[in-house]
Write a structure and sequence with these properties.
The chain is of the alpha/beta class. The chain has helices at residues 34-49, 53-60, 81-93; strands spanning 6-15, 23-24, 30-31, 64-73, 105-106, 112-117.
Length: 124
């Protein structure tokens, strides 16, 4: 996605929250997690496009370069009506803080890596 001064490369997924960060598989092997995988995939896409003169030039001319990891957590099944009632009550008390500061980390080619979790919205 682009605008006059911005470009966003996005990796979107629906995932179980336990797989977002580094985890150990049942066979004992370690997986770095979807966040790490998404960042590597976005970096790979950028690195494939940058050597193409027209595309590399267009990317370099953007003042804001964002690598966005957007995900929705897979819903977990609730055991019974009581669990659903308690969960909906807790959710009603928890309001999303729309003014919270986003965390960024710097990538190659002056891109900033950030993430949003549904229902948060990336403010562009």
């Amino acid at each position: 996605m682009t605008s006059k001064n911005k470009i966003v490369f996005c990796d979107m997924t629906c995932i179980n929250p336990k797989y977002i960060d580094k985890f150990t598989r049942s066979d004992g092997s370690v997986h770095m997690g979807k966040r790490y995988e998404a960042r590597k995939q976005i970096e790979n896409s950028i690195n494939l496009l940058m050597p193409i003169p027209e595309i590399g030039h267009a990317i370099n001319n953007k003042s804001d370069k964002i690598a966005l990891f957007a995900y929705r957590e897979k819903p977990t099944e609730l055991k019974d009506g009581f669990d659903r009632e308690v969960t909906s009550g807790i959710r009603a008390m928890c309001k999303e803080n729309k003014d919270k500061e986003q965390m960024f980390s710097v990538m190659d080619n002056d891109f900033l890596f950030t993430e949003v979790s549904y229902p948060e919205v990336y403010m562009w």
